[in-house]
Design goal:
The structure is a homodimer.
Chain A (H helix, E strand, L loop, with lengths): L2 E6 L7 H8 L1 H8 L3 E7 L3 H9 L6 E2 L3 H4 L4 E6 L7 H10 L3 E4 L2 H18 L3 E2 L10 H7 L6 E7 L2 H12 L4 H10 L8 H4 L2 H15 L9 E2 L7 H9 L2 E12 L2 E12 L11 E8 L4 E7 L3 H21 L22 E11 L4 H11 L4 E7 L5 E8 L2 E2 H13 L4 E8 L3
Parallel strand pairs in A: 1-2, 1-4, 2-3, 4-5, 5-6, 8-10, 10-17
Antiparallel strand pairs in A: 7-9, 7-11, 9-10, 11-12, 13-15, 13-16, 13-17, 14-15
Helix pairs in contact in A: 1-13, 5-6, 6-11, 8-9
């Protein structure tokens, strides 16, 4: 008997699934035990349906989701439409109809995952979404299945391929942000509206999901502070290089004494850190834990085949559990009450780039301001004094977010300093 | 009710398990569902027992394995003794007694795994060994659970921490092999007899196991050709650097048209390859596949806590399956008939370092020899001509193992060339 699947959407990722079923059919069948059959595919309208058929796609295309939801033979619904609606409604209805669901929709899972996970539990069906974080990297199942014995203390991730491509060009080739964005758009890595990628929103969605699997925490998207790469200048990149760092957009989820902290921000990474050599559109998740210590999981963060591979791994897992009779287990069973961390408890080193009049005594004044908030310097560089303006660059020792806020306010109030940029620094 | 565990051996790794149970008890209990209890610990003799008790270890130490094998309450036996005997006999008896077994013993699994796996199957019990390959890196479970949907075409791995530490010192600091070995021994990374590490034997054990999980193949240890790092000179390292490579000991398992090929050898890795920045005692497994494309799994290859974390993950998985009533599933279900590859089908680029009299016409003669075997040069460097002897370095285009053998024989027969070294080159 075959296991019948209904696909919602037939875009790039969905069309990667038939490729794997064809090229890897023997292994997939051995693993899933029953033949997997794409029984119906939902498309938008007759126009799309006719176009796909004309292009040689031999599927049972339907334009009304009810044809899938009411089909009792379909046991697995795979949502690959993206965005919030109508995906949210369709998944909800599929779960309510007792169907197992696979999705790659990080936006939806990060913002409405809680209710969908809970509904799946109530209905005793599976709701899996390995592809939602870091595309082809099997990080969620690894956290859920292998790191069960370990206590994760921090997850650092290069989680957005588009911004990582851009930062790689800015770091390795000295390109400006604007040039990097233009090329990313030309290559199809960035959309015409690149906001989600370059502002760290996409990475923040993934940080929400990683905090569930790594820490058992249920945090909201709004609990993840995010800062993008839009104001990284060639000056920032050059000074980072000079000091032995590369700048990347990094998701950072960690547990401190008071609770959990999650943020996405451009970060100075020491050149010898494993994340520092994750380049172009590749992603990586770096895990710090009390048992393993440091481990990293590296691979493509997006793309047709990598994402389809993760989706198909979820489908196979459901098929196996259907035959074992235990399909209702949650994707992630690790859950605990973990409050949001107190900002006074979340400490990092920071980089400050400041402009100041090219006059005597400015570094003294700057030292007084930082000292008044109990922050000490690790490195200070004075650059580009031109008789009028000087650029001062500071790398601080570890300071809390509370200290960061306080010192930033003082610097902004000080008439002789302009804060050009402030970035987190991962210490060596 | 608790799940009772019998430990065979209480060395470094074993004593890491209580650490995790203490520091991560809540998560472990939630995952395993039942409390895990170390009921008995086998030690060698009364002397060791008394020493451990005197050191404050509060376990039920026994000196006769039958006390564990005949204890019907013990459901899981964890073998952490290492070497072949008596581990092989004890595991066999434990499986025969219907106990689930966890082991970290790569030597044993690579050489006698087949019979133990088959016995576990017959008895309907689990036999897991995540820690046997790359210590803390959860690579086996990832291959078995997540890469089910993908077809692996090649696995490249930095699989031996000791030799990687040595190669890192030789590459980054220009140390000689002898100095690197001496320091590795002083730091406790290398044993007084370092053969297994430096000759690639340890890595070859791991390659056997990776070929099972990645390719479904059952190959023998003797099917893995292995070559160590003992004859890598500072000259080899320097010329690699000059040409944009680093040398590491790399396990290489790949499927070619005629079958599977597995070998361990010092390998020129392009500097921008993700494996090239895996340094010191760290391990990494780089997977090429038709779906994900390229992915890498990085972490500590050995050490008390990392290895104990993998062992405990296996124990938790067994505990869960005991409560689900499906404990008898094999660790790796992927199996198929895959012959050993025909050497004519296994192609790589190669580096040759040759000494020749410092006379005219030698590169011409060398070209004739390679050309006669249909091998072309990618790069040729003449170095260190001193009026008497010249060193010629060649990087070839891809050639088969058959061609390698033939050309090496011709070079050795030629009176004017001495083959100083031949190493595999991973092409860019």
């Amino acid at each position: 008997m075959s296991i019948k699947i209904g696909l919602l959407g037939f875009g790039t990722v969905a069309s990667g699934i038939p490729f794997l079923l064809k090229e890897n059919g023997e292994k997939v069948l051995a693993a899933s035990r029953d033949q997997l059959e794409i029984a119906k595919v939902l498309v938008k309208d007759d126009e799309e349906k006719n176009r796909l058929i004309a292009a040689g796609n031999d599927y049972n295309f339907v334009t009304n989701v009810d044809e899938i939801l009411n089909d009792e033979e379909i046991q697995i619904v795979v949502e690959l439409m993206g965005r919030i609606e109508p995906a949210r409604t369709f998944i909800t209805k599929a779960l309510e109809a007792g169907k197992n669901v696979v999705s790659a929709n990080k936006d939806l899972i990060a913002t409405h995952g809680k209710e969908l996970i809970s509904l799946a539990q109530d209905k005793g069906v599976a709701f899996y979404y390995e592809a939602a974080v870091a595309g082809g990297i099997p990080i969620l199942r690894t956290l859920a299945n292998s790191l069960t014995s370990d206590k994760v203390t921090r997850i650092l991730g290069v989680l957005n391929g588009t911004s990582n491509f851009m930062m790689t060009k800015m770091v390795d080739e000295g390109w400006s942000y604007e040039d990097a964005l233009k090329t990313a758009q030309e290559l199809g890595y960035a959309e015409s509206d690149p906001t989600n990628d370059v502002e760290g929103i996409d990475a923040a969605y993934k940080a929400v999901i990683l905090s569930q699997f790594g820490f058992g925490a249920t945090i909201d998207f709004d609990d993840v502070t995010h800062k993008g790469i839009t104001n990284i200048s060639t000056d920032d990149v050059a000074v980072a290089q000079e000091l032995g760092y590369v700048i990347k957009l990094v998701g950072d989820v960690r547990e401190v004494e008071s609770g959990i902290s999650a943020e996405v921000s451009p970060t100075f990474l020491p050149k010898n850190h494993p994340l520092a050599s994750v380049n172009d559109v590749m992603n990586a998740v770096f895990v710090e834990s009390i048992g393993i210590g440091e481990s990293m999981y590296y691979g493509p963060g997006a793309g047709q085949k990598p994402t389809a591979t993760s989706v198909l791994a979820d489908i196979i897992r459901i098929a196996r559990r259907l035959s074992d009779g235990n399909v209702g287990k949650p994707f992630n069973e690790f859950r605990r009450d973990l409050p949001l961390a107190n900002p006074a408890d979340v400490k990092s080193n920071y980089y400050f780039a400041l402009d100041t009049p090219d006059e005597k005594g400015k570094i003294l004044h700057l030292s007084e301001i930082f000292n008044s908030e109990d922050i000490s310097f690790e490195q200070v560089l004075q650059q580009k004094a031109n008789g009028t303006t000087a650029r001062i660059v500071v790398i601080t020792h570890a300071m809390s977010k509370t200290q960061l806020k306080a010192v930033t306010e003082k610097l902004e109030a000080a008439e002789d300093f302009t804060v050009v940029n402030t970035l987190k620094v991962l210490s060596n």
